[in-house]
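Exam prep: given the inputs below (a chain plus zinc ion), describe the expected output before reading on.
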Amino acid sequence: MSAKNLNKILNEICISPELKKAEWIGLREVRERHRSFVGQDGKIRDISSDNTHGIMVEVFFHGQMGYSASPSPHVSAVLESAIRALRQAQAASKWSVAPFDFGASSPRVRPVAKGHYASPKSVSTMSPAAISELVVMMSGRMQKSSKIVQTLAYIDCLDGESRLVSTSGTEIEQELEGIILHFQATAQDGSITQKRSDGENLQGNQQYLTDPSLWLRVDRVAEQSLELLSAPECPNETTSVVLMPSQMTLQIHESIGHPLEIDRILGDERNYAGWSFVRAKDFGNLQYGSKLLNVTFDPTVSGELASYSFDDGGNPAKREHLIRDGLLIRGLGGLESQTRSKIPGVANFRASSWNRPPVDRMANINLEPGSSSFDQIISSIESGILMDTNRSWSIDDYRNKFQFGCEYAKRIQNGKITHTIRNPNYRGITTPFWNGLKMVGEASTLYTHGTPNCGKAEPNQVIRVGHRSPVCLFENVEVFGGAK
Ligand SMILES: [Zn+2]
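Solution:
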């Protein structure tokens, strides 16, 4: 369906006398196709595909938004949803938690916008047979020893489109394609089991799938899983810790992204996803990290997993600093949360699909590069540990105290990387940890990751987010091995 056709449906339902009392109506159509190819131990384990398509109707009445979705694009079905959404808004408007203003022709929380976004193409250029063959080859290649007891490789292909039209003239079309690649090897020797993994989470850009360097990465995963079997356990000590970008992804996601979501700060998520240690008065005042910490919200970066031009409220996306020189200045809240909290926010009002209302989400949350080369970081450390790739995580409901484990680590002694360490873990408290940020890698150390599985909201919404980070060095971090 085109935006023109969606507008036609909107015009037809607006003729209905039952919708006369609606002050504003918006339609958001989402169509998404998801294909998954899984190879295990050199064989195909599973190929699956699913499609979803529907229309969310939003109706504004007396400061209140009502929602109802239709899996059918037929005018009668969309009208039925619109009437349900109007009734919901009428009923709720009497007890509004936060009645919103109506602007010249539209609720102020739904700006009038027109535009188009298309991610780089990826899925359409590779055949299902070629993708199946690739996951079989990858999982087969990692079977390098009888001690490697399981190998797994999967590729998830996503392609979708969303359209937003409204009675105030909004007309937005966005097309998204992405590939999730993951491969892992599990090695076992007696009672010791170790897993090593690698992968990519990007919109478009599938070049790495046909680049010879992919096979070096596949080999390295298998070799490192074996290497970990005989590596010494991570010591228990307080030391310098270098986090590689893959682990920084999790660190940024859990201890910067989630606590800065304004709906959490307002308490909306406290029963489910949790609250936040950050308070409204902290914006502009809290020294979240050291002066080297600069974090941006940036859906405009091409190719990251959550790049787009407009959020699902029609707010145009722009790059914004959340933390500048360590100071917290902006939260992750869309126009509704900004209106309620008076905290400066971003265009992050996003829904996971057509049958969910938008809420405050992360998009691409990136840690900006610094000026240190990788070698400068390592040579500055007298004694420390480098950790790579998240393995486990635990963080409290306020996103304050955390404990994270990694797959792989290296000892650093007298400015040099020495031997491999297994079962590396570290723990900390969010703001002291970020204030211990001592060196930030230059652009050459940047790597883009992300996750397709950020969960939040009731009913649950699983959404894709992107994270780009350089290598970072933290001081005075408590590390410990797997025995604790
Ligand atoms: Zn998350």
